[in-house]
Amino acid sequence: MSFITDSAECEGFETEYVKFGSGDKALVILPGLSVQSLIPLAPAIEKQYGLFKNEFTVYLFERRKDLPGSYSVYDMGNDTAGAMKTLGIKDACIFGASQGGMIAMCLALDYPELVSRLALGSTAARVSESRSGVIKEWISLAEKADCEGLYLSFGKRVYPENVFESFKDTFKEMAKTVSDEDLKRFIILARGTLGFDVTDKLENINCPLLLTGDDSDGVLGEEAFKELEALLSDKEDFEAYLYSSFGHAVYDTAPDYTERLYNFFTK
Fold first, then answer.
1. Please, which residues bridge with residue 58 across strands?
2. Which value, in Å, is the radius of gyration of the alpha carbons in the chain?
């Protein structure tokens, strides 16, 4: 394995990241909301995105350490920009999944110099009251410290039924490793998604953009994809692709997903 894990020491905060690859171009991956940190999954992340290793230097950023009590998606975008600047990353290809897609939109809007191409997966331009039910369910379970219930709800909503059933016991075992700090962090990050809305700003994104989603998205629903597609449809260099039956985590479950990203980012 050739990955490294490290921390970017920024002004006022610190954020962990995974880095691999040796290419001249930068690819920044912004993952979605997770119950626990993804940094320990670095070997699997490198394997999943191994297609990029020769042409890109790949970075996957976690959210900052020591979260403030209130931390919105817009704050996450500002901190991601700070981490990128600290590491000298600019003009990068950005892939954001779920909440990471919301952060990616904030980056493209507020820091266009950092973004050359933008791929959004299973995300939304806004998290309205009607679209926040699943996130509120997760917050409630975390507040009750029902770790098994949280992991099972997370798995059921994020993955297609066959995948969820196959890994149900794994989710139960993972729940046993969740700490009080994990729960506190998860609640802050999940709350930060509520009320997110950039529908009136998307016309200001000027870079090439790929939108993907799935018709069986159990977190945000297919309508989130359709709304984003409609808002972006007049843009030049815009592509959209809707998968079927791969779930919210289509970015992990669809066999051609990484190749689709690669083809877009190497155009």
1. 20, 27
2. 17
Q: What is the pTM of this model?
A: 0.97
C-alpha dist (Å) from residue 79 to 31, 108, 149, 193 = 14, 14, 31, 15
Q: How far apart are the C-alpha atoms of 167 and 141, rounded to whole Å?
A: 20
- Say how far apart CA 247 and CA 243 lie, in whole Å: 9
Task: Provide the phi-psi class of 12: left if phi over 0, else alpha when psi is between -120 and 50, else beta.
Answer: left
User: What does the pLDDT average to over 86-115?
Assistant: 98
Give CA–CA dist 215/224, Å, rounded.
10
Largest CA distance in the chain: 48
Q: Name the residue among 242, 213, 218, 251 with its Cα closest to residue 133.
A: 218
pLDDT tens-digit readout, 103-154: 999 999 999 999 999 999 999 999 999 899 999 999 999 999 999 999 999 9
